[in-house]
Amino acid sequence: MKVALASDHAGFLLKEYIKKYLTEKEIMYHDFGTCDETPVDYPDLAYKAARSVQKGDYEKGIIICGTGIGVAITANKLKGIRAALCCDTFSARCARAHNDANILTLGARVIDRDTALEIVDVFLNTAFEGGRHHRRIEKIRKYECKVTND
Ligand code: RB5
């Protein structure tokens, strides 16, 4: 599995922490930035990572800002992206099993580091259940706006 990572300045330290975890687990990733705590605009970083998932370069994405909200809003503008803001492992499990979410967003100012790692672990290791959920994802696709995102 290859994971696209990104954060703004508020999520930078949590992103670095998650990178250590991914390295330990031998999970490949690419870091789309940001590279320090200098203030940046979260839509620019969220777009880069979400676009790479949309293109199929990366199977999943993890994008972090202060609340996880701004990056989720941004990522969900891209057709085919299902970004889920998760603050607990139950939501992370459902985001994968029921919603086939391809991007996890996290709020670095909302949850602690250990909770974040538990959420990442569940998100990356839970499969989509399909079945009735497949029909619902197809309906999301149907309702998606038809404009391209380039
Ligand atoms: C940055 O201060 C903050 O607004 C951002 O990280 C995020 O929380 C936006 O949704």
Description of the molecule:
Helices cover 45% and strands 16% of the residues. It is of the alpha/beta class. It has helices spanning 12-24, 42-55, 69-75, 89-97, 113-125, 132-143; strands at 2-7, 28-31, 60-65, 83-85, 103-107. It is built from six helices and five strands. It is globular. The chain has a single domain (2-144), classed as Sugar-phosphate isomerase, RpiB/LacA/LacB (Ribose 5-phosphate Isomerase B, Chain: A), CATH 3.40.1400. Bound molecules: D-ribose. D-ribose (RB5) binds at residues 8, 10, 42, 65-67, 69-70.
Radius of gyration of CA atoms, rounded to a whole number? 14 Å
Count of the domains? 1
How many DSSP E strands? Answer: 5
- Number of discrete helical segments: 6
Structural class estimated from helices and strands: alpha/beta
Low-confidence stretches: none
CATH class: Alpha Beta
Outline the biggest β-sheet.
5 strands, parallel
Widest beta sheet: strand line-up? 2-1-3-5-4
Bound molecules: D-ribose
By CATH, the topology is: Ribose 5-phosphate Isomerase B, Chain: A
Task: Give average pLDDT, whole number.
Answer: 96
SSE succession: EHEHEHEHEHH
CATH superfamily: Sugar-phosphate isomerase, RpiB/LacA/LacB
Helix content: 40-55%
CATH-scheme architecture: 3-Layer(aba) Sandwich
| Shape estimate | globular
Beta-strand residue fraction? 15-25%
N-to-C span: 25 Å
Summary tags:
150 residues, single chain, Ribose 5-phosphate Isomerase B, Chain: A, alpha/beta, binds D-ribose, globular, five-stranded parallel β-sheet
Task: Characterize this entry briefly.
With 150 residues, the chain is of the alpha/beta class. The protein has helices spanning 12-24, 42-55, 69-75, 89-97, 113-125, 132-143, and strands at residues 2-7, 28-31, 60-65, 83-85, 103-107.
